[in-house]
Write a structure and sequence with these properties.
Length: 135
């Protein structure tokens, strides 16, 4: 069984127990989905993408993005373009509705976020201030 088939089988078993987001979807652009798929192919034991926020930077919140090893208690799981996105309960109100993109430029590449809950971003782009109703 190849690595992609093992990942698909493992993801299907986790899907049976996962919560589903309604009206609060997180979406990936095709470029972001392509990049995440390449990471998952390199690390076939991973379940999908873990996305959330942490306290950091000059504006208060910074994005946390990594590959998911497991589904944690309280996680909400949404699927977009065949990729499972795991979001912890504390982050969900701050990232619901976010569109994740991936850009490649001469000086490097990075994920970028279009978040409807961000009231403002700092000048360096590392952090954001949340809409008070989301936080």
């Amino acid at each position: 069984m190849n690595a992609l088939a093992r990942l698909a089988r493992r993801a299907a078993s986790v899907a049976a127990a996962s919560a589903t987001m309604t009206g609060m979807d997180i979406n990936l652009t095709e470029a972001a989905a392509r990049r995440v798929r390449s990471y998952l192919q390199e690390q076939p034991g991973r379940l999908g993408l873990r996305f959330g926020v942490r306290r950091t930077g000059c504006s208060g919140w910074g994005y946390a993005i990594d590959l998911a090893d497991d589904q944690r208690p309280g996680d909400t799981v949404v699927e977009d373009q065949g990729i499972r996105i795991f979001v912890d309960a504390d982050s969900l109100p701050l990232v619901a509705g976010t569109r994740i993109d991936f850009i490649e430029q001469t000086m490097g590449s990075q994920f970028v976020f279009e978040n409807p809950n961000a009231a403002a971003a700092c000048g360096c782009g590392e952090s954001f201030t949340a809409d008070p109703e989301a936080a």
